[in-house]
Amino acid sequence: MSFEILNPTRLLVFITFFVCLIVRHRHKNKAFELVFIIVSISAANEILTAALSYRHHATYVLNNLYVMVHGWMWFRVMRHLVLRWRKLQLSVSIALLVFGIGNFFIGEGMQHFAFFNFIVGSILYVATFLYVAFGALLEDDFLFFKRREFLLLLAPIPYYLPMSMVFGFGSKELHSMIVFGHITFYMALITFVNCLYYGLILLYTHLDNKYRHNT
After folding, report:
1. Residue 85: what are its φ and ψ, rounded to 5°?
2. Per-residue pLDDT tens for 154-165?
3. Where are the beta strands (DSSP E) in the chain?
4. Which among 119, 110, 149 is positioned nearest to 132, based on CA atoms?
5. 204 three-class SS
6. Contact 96, 89 (CB under 8 A)
7. β-pair partners for 184
8. Are 128 and 89 a contacting pair, CB within 8 Å?
9. pTM of the predicted structure, to 2 decimals
10. Furthest-apart CA pair in the chain: how many Å?
11. CB within 8 Å of 139: residues ≥ 6 apart
12. Which of 18, 24, 65, 67 is nearest to 43 (CA)?
């Protein structure tokens, strides 16, 4: 396995982490603290993954744990920002943890990447997000879609949807298909979706910083 010390995704993670770290003292709110924790976990995962890969050790256990914690943290963000249906969101996040742990022991195991954990987590988050969004529409709460918090809740969607669809197909040929030069389809896709994901987080950080500067 070839080792890349700083691939595009890793660079995006570190840029987002350092931006959030620099502006953290200006954001005295729970939502940003949760985002900072998510980005910090992502940065730590990238560092540990790089170290393990450099020593030619498997990273499946680490990445599987990251997928679970990452998904659970985004449900925490949603529960904090959307006060309606908090019991539903809590139930869904608990169901995600139970499924993930069960999948480790009686399902896919920890010896390779647990695709089902990622796919199920993606489906649950997207479904809950749509439920919350449609609920806001039914209640004529159109301001919900103009708030910076909506942008934050939207951030994982461009990451979850494409990746869960690719993992759902489970085609090794699709993953390794060359799209340009030596760039595989998987590498191109993961770079693109991470640009959207971390780009939305950075945009939320900018808007939140601007709002707090003007108040």
Report:
1. 60, 35
2. 999 999 998 888
3. 178-180, 183-184
4. 149
5. helix
6. no
7. 178
8. yes
9. 0.89
10. 55
11. none
12. 18
